[in-house]
Amino acid sequence: MKHLHTWIKDESGASTLEFVLLFPVVFSVFLMSLETSIIIVRQAMLERAVDITSRSLRLSSRLDLTTDTVADMICDKARIIRNCHETISLDLRSIVRPSYVLPSRDAMCIDRNTLLRPVTRFEPSQTLPNELMLLRVCVEIDPLLRVSALMAQINGDTSGRLFMEASTIFVSEPITEVAQQ
């Protein structure tokens, strides 16, 4: 009994026990904050790329723009997003002015598991001058940790990939022909 009493009072492994109990908690918080930071940087780069591309769409006199060329413009500016060209989905549509009704916020992202593309519209050649346009972009990304508690709060597909969405509204500028002198 005396040996048991001395063993219980012995404090020679107390710091090891604290390390074993606290290290997983502290390290998981560190990993989740690192992952959150990476997701925020990717989202900021996507928003920036959409804003720059919408500016060039707004001021562009090119009527031959396609979904692929605009997707290339966005993906070239958002370099931090891997596989952007394979997972990007675009939706460009006009907004009716008297009612200003926006389309539904249903998911327009590509699910790589089913390989189905959502039905979206992209008609830059049919825009009229001074027309209010909505550009929505969705990109699917792979997270660092698929099991973190943070991932339960973010939209994604069944395999754990995340959907990042960005949108902007702009007015298409009237195209004017400049006479050459």
Descriptive report:
The chain has 181 residues and is of the alpha+beta class. The protein has one domain (16-171). 38% of the residues lie in helices and 14% in strands. It is built from 4 helices and 3 strands, in the order ααααβββ. The chain has helices at residues 2-9, 14-59, 67-77, 84-87; strands at residues 89-94, 132-141, 162-171. Strands 1-2-3 form a 3-stranded antiparallel sheet, with helices on one face. Helix 2 (14-59) crosses helix 3 (67-77). The model has no long low-confidence stretch (mean pLDDT 78).
Sum up the structure in keywords.
single chain; 181 residues; three-stranded antiparallel beta sheet; 4 helices; 38% helix
Overall tally of domains: 1
Mean pLDDT: 78
Roughly what fraction of the amino acids lie in strands? Answer: 5-15%
Rg (CA only): 25 Å
Gross geometry:
rod-shaped
Q: State the end-to-end CA separation.
A: 107 Å
Unreliable runs: none
The tally of beta strands, per DSSP, is 3
Biggest sheet, open or closed, and with what strands and sense?
3 strands, antiparallel
Tally the helices: what do you get?
A: 4
- The string of secondary-structure elements, in order, is HHHHEEE
Q: Please state the structural category.
A: alpha+beta
* Arrangement of strands in the largest sheet: 1-2-3
Percent of residues in helices = 25-40%
